[in-house]
């Protein structure tokens, strides 16, 4: 297996783009090589098989979706209130929109995981770790609500963003902000 970490990252980023634009069926080594602008056969030097590529794509998506160092701490500085939760959820939605390709790739991986047990195991591990970290941060920062509050916010935002990215005419940016506020107001108790 090849060991150039920069090239591996470029191939994984190309795979995310292919997933987002062509779906899981379009994700081939040849398509990744073409998207990355590397010679045909390069991907197969880095990934033993397609399932390995899919699993590592899941990890790369979360690397790209991880906030910049210190940005989360800065966002959590104000008084922990329901209003702050609204702002944090809006911030999160904007971050996901900025990484739309990653988020669409993640939707494709979720669908593919329904058919591939190995990918399901890896994706479950990655998503579980992310959800657990969100719960930990919410509770540690003193935000109103409990672990179930975070789970409900997660499910609601996931659904809102699925619609927002896949059927964008369903609601506009302003409507998304309003829906986020409504969701938070109905789920998060007052402090």
TrEMBL record:
Keywords: DNA-binding. Residues 5-65 form the HTH tetR-type domain. Pfam families: TetR_C_31 (PF17940), TetR_N (PF00440). InterPro entries: Homeodomain-like_sf, HTH-type_TetR-like_transc_reg, HTH_TetR, TetR_C_31. Residues 28-47 bind DNA. It comes from the Bacteria. PANTHER family: HTH-TYPE TRANSCRIPTIONAL REGULATOR RUTR (PTHR30055), TRANSCRIPTIONAL REGULATORY PROTEIN (PROBABLY DEOR-FAMILY)-RELATED (PTHR30055:SF231). This is TetR/AcrR family transcriptional regulator.
């Amino acid at each position: 297996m090849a060991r150039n970490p920069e090239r591996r990252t470029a191939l994984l980023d190309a795979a995310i783009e292919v997933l987002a634009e062509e779906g899981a069926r379009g994700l081939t080594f040849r398509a990744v090589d073409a998207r990355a602008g590397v010679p045909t056969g390069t991907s197969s030097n880095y990934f033993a098989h397609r399932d390995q590529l899919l699993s590592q794509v899941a990890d790369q998506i979360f690397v790209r979706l991880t906030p910049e160092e210190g940005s989360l701490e800065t966002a959590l500085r104000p008084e922990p209130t329901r209003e702050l939760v609204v702002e944090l959820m809006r911030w999160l939605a904007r971050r996901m929109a900025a990484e739309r390709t990653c988020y669409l790739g993640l939707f494709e991986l979720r669908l593919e995981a329904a058919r591939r047990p190995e990918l399901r195991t890896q994706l479950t591990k990655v998503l579980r770790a992310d959800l657990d970290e969100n719960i930990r941060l919410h509770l540690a920062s003193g935000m109103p609500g409990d672990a179930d509050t975070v789970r409900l916010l997660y499910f609601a935002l996931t659904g809102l963003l699925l619609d927002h990215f896949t059927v964008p005419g369903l609601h506009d940016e302003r409507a998304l902000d309003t829906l986020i506020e409504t969701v938070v107001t109905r789920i998060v108790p007052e402090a």
